[in-house]
């Protein structure tokens, strides 16, 4: 399979890049971990931050969160993830959302390395 296809699949759906390469155990572990972190971040009143170029830190956080791919887009379109800044759990929720996106970025790189025969 094409490395570009693997990268796009891995970004859109966490674990899909490994699934297309026949690594089912990695698929289960990665998709379960990333999706659980993303859902937990939303459940902890985390906010899916908007892409605001005038505020670099918010822009970086939003970019990191969008690294989850399709689940991020579905949550935004469904209106989930408005967050509750006064909640005790808000900061934890945002942290979970950011880490889920960044973890998926690492999983995408792993899938790419496997497609190139480096692993």
Structure overview:
By secondary structure, this protein is mostly helical. It has six helices and no strands. The protein has helices spanning 3-12, 16-19, 24-43, 56-65, 70-77, 90-115. The radius of gyration is 15 Å and the shape is elongated. The mean pLDDT is 95.
Q: Name the shape in a single word.
A: elongated
**Quantity of strands, as a count:** 0
- What does the main sheet amount to? none
**Class by helix and strand content?**
mainly alpha
| Count of helical stretches | 6
Tell me the β content. under 5%
Average predicted confidence as pLDDT = 95
Distance between termini? 16 Å
Provide the succession of SSEs. HHHHHH
What is the CA-based Rg, rounded? 15 Å
Low-confidence stretches: none
Question: Topology of this structure?
Answer:
Elements: H1 3-12, H2 16-19, H3 24-43, H4 56-65, H5 70-77, H6 90-115
Helix pairs in contact: 1-6, 3-6, 4-6
Describe, in short, the structure shown.
This protein is 66% helix and 0% strand. The chain is built from six helices and no strands.
